[in-house]
Amino acid sequence: MTNKKLFETIKKNLKKADNAIVAVHVDPDGDTIGSALTMAMVLESFGVATTIYSEDGIPEIYHFLPLAEKVVNKIAYKVHFDLAIALDASDISRVGEKINLREVASFLINIDHHPDNTNYADINYVEKRSSTAECLYQLCKYLKIKINKEMAACLYTALITDTGNFRYENTSVDTFLMAADLLRAGLNTHEITTNIYDTRSIPSLRIAARALSQMEFSADHKVGWTVITKKMMAETRAKGEDLIGIVDQLRSVKGIEVAILFREEKGKVKLNLRSKHDVNVSTIASLFDGGGHNKAAGAIIEGNVEDVKNRVLTEVLKHVRV
């Protein structure tokens, strides 16, 4: 199906819906949040009553965004929606365990940019772009949605967080053209970058210091990793959102090809992988039922942290040495 036909089908379903739920993925990042908030504004422009759902809530650094205060982490029992839209979720399971979008809605739309998307919806708009926000921007242009200042703030937040503030190689000409259009809408870039990159909590600094002070390296210094335990989280009073950026700092070490953050949780380990050049960490994550992008991926692995660390390092070292 061409994008034109796809967009027409999406438009038809937006028009006929009376109510909708917009869902982000678990451990939400700027792209899924910014895209969902923008989609909620688009739906409201169609007169659709909209619920914005995030199982894990949203990190405090994104609370400044328009409609952020309307995000909920639960829905009423037996509520039913005409339409559900998942943003930036490569699989329906990424929305979380508390709700099943198939059960709570009559029709499901999936908008995403992940290459490993499982095309789980009735309509799947999945396109290789810098971010889900860039996909959504293309849809907005087709629908002739006038991007206002509030939408621009959400889309720009999504754009810069998934492109590393335009540093990653997924940044394209289309990415910069989109950014320019958002600036024309009256966007305050300083406010956004200050909130996201220049505002840190004391626990986030303490946990980063602990994590980076005990990082380890492979013999050739091409692989670097660190482990964050439950005890470290408790001692620093850190939350999950306070870990944002730690694995990227580890990747920045000279000579590192793959950086890994292991976060211990009850009975499982959350894995974050970053690659600097040629190693496709999405392939590695898929070995552990995870996924993502070539240079940024993750997984949740059952087991204790030492066993999981050894298993993951074995696979990573194989790929680095190929």
From TrEMBL:
Pfam families: DHH, DHHA1
InterPro entries linked: DDH_dom (IPR001667), DHH_sf (IPR038763), DHHA1_dom (IPR003156), Oligoribo/pAp-PDE_c-di-AMP_PDE (IPR051319)
A single GO molecular function term of this UniProt record: nucleic acid binding
Domain DHHA1: 231-313
Domain of life of the organism encoding this protein: Bacteria
SUPFAM superfamilies to which the protein is assigned, alphabetical: DHH phosphoesterases
Every DDH domain range: 21-158
UniProt name for this protein: DDH domain-containing protein
Organism expressing this protein natively: candidate division WOR-1 bacterium RIFOXYC2_FULL_41_25
